[in-house]
Design a protein that fits this description.
Layout lengths: L1 H9 L17 H16 L7 H6 L9
Length: 65
Amino acid sequence: PQAFAAAMLAKVGPGSILLMHPMYDSGEVARAALPLILTGLKSRGYRIVPVGELLALPGPSVPRT
């Protein structure tokens, strides 16, 4: 879980969307890493918001397909 969390946090930047599917049997590591990821994001000053709220923020336009 620590390595998984570190890898996710290393790629995060403003406006990032983290997508995980921890509900499957193979997602045990992702489930265990989630608290570490959330703590790491909050310690860096990020806010956790739903995707809809993130997309509603002003910023560069993103093509939607």
